[in-house]
Amino acid sequence: MDDSTLEIIIIANGPAKIKCTKAEITLPDGSIVTKEKPFSLCRCGKSDDKPFCDGTHNTCGFQG
Ligand code: FES
């Protein structure tokens, strides 16, 4: 994967894993979070750290 390639892997019953070297995520309040290594976005809706995955999908029964 080169620096310009973004790879998104949907984990069964879990998050969307974002593989990239750098990403800027704009949050609903307009603030920007910069990630410079792979990270995961919540798909279950139960994370206390939205939009990021905090592992809660492992205990909330998320299927998807
Ligand atoms: S997908 Fe992991 S906490 Fe929601």
What do you see in this structure?
The protein has strands spanning 7-10, 16-19, 23-26, 32-35, 39-41. It is built from no helices and five strands. The model has no long low-confidence stretch (mean pLDDT 95). The protein has one domain (7-58). It has 64 residues and is mainly β. It starts with 6 loop residues before the first strand and ends in a 23-residue tail after the last strand. Bound molecules: FE2/S2 (inorganic) cluster. FE2/S2 (inorganic) cluster is lined by residues 14-15, 42-44, 46-47, 53-57.
Which labels suit this protein?
single chain; 64 residues; mainly beta; three-stranded antiparallel beta sheet; two-stranded antiparallel ribbon; 0% helix; flat; binds FE2/S2 (inorganic) cluster
